[in-house]
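Troubleshooting: if your tokenizer reports a length mismatch, compare your output against this known-good record of 350 residues.
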Amino acid sequence: MNAAYLPLVLLALSTPALAKASLAYEAPEGCPTQPEFVAAVAARGADFGGVETKDASRVMVVSIRKQEGVFAGTFHVREEQSATDKREVSGPSCTEVADALAVVAAIALRPEDNAPSTSATSAPTPDPPASPASTSPPAPAEERLRGSTRIFPPRSESVQVGAGALRFDLQRSVTAYAGATVGMVPSLLLPRFDLSFDAANFVTTPERAQRIAGLVTQLHVSFLGPASYASTGSKTDMTGVSFGIGLCQSPLYDTRGLVVLFCGEYGGGIMNVRTKAADGTQIQSKDVGFGVVNIGAEAQYNFGSVFHIGAKLGGGFTVGQLTAERADGSRIFGSSIWAAYGLLGAGVHF
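Known-good structure output:
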């Protein structure tokens, strides 16, 4: 017996035969009507004895309502001075919930099913097929995932879910970006090429409600340059590499549509600086380390289940000044503590 139906069935089996019970039925628009519910009970070998009004001494109360995207139905039997406890069943569609309640109503209305049976209690019977109203099979891996994150998530949170399976998905994306950085070298657009990795942890409830657990994490590796800074009597060539680790808040994350990320990151890198005189004589060659603390915004659009395009803008604080000097020690240029970047890219998600 399916676990979600068991309290309902036990209630039905413990109720005296209701062959002359009337029906009080309530359901929102779009659900099966009362005549359709009565027909569903009749299709399962039971009826209400031709009484469908609410003036009988025993009334079977069936109510269905919609809440938070799912349907919940309740069942109980009311008499003049008493009533049985309410039992509830939920499911993704009203029809499925109505069918489940029709099964329980049919059991309560058939006298032969309410009689105690030694053999029924002593020998196990085969479990019937699980009804979609009480269990939700795991969705296909290619199903669209939608969710959002919160900047300040609660320390602990309780979420009520129905019977079924929780599904956990790790949504990942890899994106190659190309663009430029300004500020590291005065009056120079420094080419930048990124390889970015994102990961979001999704949880899907049996009712198919989806949410992201925690923030979206991001890791990227950047290649800077090559670029050249020309000055009177010298030329400085630069290439470098950097990395960054970030946490991103996502107001919208749709694996088959738009993804928006607001990220904070920190990282660092190293830049090789080589300065030569006009005649080609090397004046200076050094590696300069630096750190970065950035904030940025990123948007991706997913085309189907694999490919996406993206754009990224950001900037922040640079620790460690990038400089170049002439042979006499005078400075050719010095970088600002502020830098910004803009990138466009494409990638895959899985």
